[in-house]
Amino acid sequence: MDYIWLILSLICIITGVLGSLLPILPGLPISWLGLLILTLTKPIETDLLLLSVTGIIAIGVGLLDYWIPAKGTKAFGGSKFGVWGTNIGLVVGLIVPIPFGFIWGPFVGAFLGEWWFAARKGHDAMWAATGSFVGFLTSTFLKLVVSIVFLGIFISLVWRNISLFF
To answer: Domain range spanning residue 142?
Structure first.
């Protein structure tokens, strides 16, 4: 049974790393689930502190994933309309089946929010939309780094206890 838990845990960790790049999958929660499943194996001791800290980090980064693009829009001079456009564009970009909609959605949403509702000129609206894109790249990079750290924790735990599996 330990082998099944180990394989399922590895699948969750790898899916989590991929999910940090593909917004369709909730990457960090899946990676954290992989760490939780790993503790179900007999060779790996359950470390509640490790699970608590990584769980809090996963939740925190998950919340930042929605907050950072909106703040990027605001940092580049966007108004509340641009921030709302970013958030709405992110949701629409995930739902609408266009290539890379999760990237284009927040950008177009911020641009339209600034251009249409805030009545800003093209350059100012484009600058706010660029802030949305920079925020998206920042949050994606943050998710990727944390999910790779979770992968490193997985490898470390398995490597220290590999002899107990065989």
So the answer is: 2-165
